[in-house]
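Standup notes
- DV: blocked on the single-chain target, sequence here:
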Amino acid sequence: MLQFSDLKKEADVACLYHCDFGDPPRFVQMLTNIANHFSAYGADPFAIQLVIVAHGTGVKFFLESLEGTSWRDEAMVPQIFERVLAQAQNGLKVHLCDITFQRLNLDRSKVRKADFITFVPSGVATVAALQSKGFAYLKIG
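- DV (later): unblocked, structure below
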């Protein structure tokens, strides 16, 4: 689990995308914006730092399965996570809220295995911590 002191601004341009929603079209729009954001800075991986902070229903996009969750009747869209993987190759990081997992009794082992996904103590506190470190704030919708 990352601590707030572990959060660092490592590029001149740094932005957090706040994801506390579970609507797949809105999430896809956020991924499109992230792709456009990366493309504006070209091939330089040190020019821009983008992070998704997910809490509440936003964490469901990073689970292997919705079985055993309150979203169990919803369909997973595998292509959505493929788009996340594509942006991770550009340097995208994802921070998941530990409080969400505790309060919703979600099994952490259901999170997709990827080195760009980490847990943070609190999603909303991470949003504020990143802003205090110079990250711009974007929320789609």
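- Follow-up: The chain has four helices and five strands.
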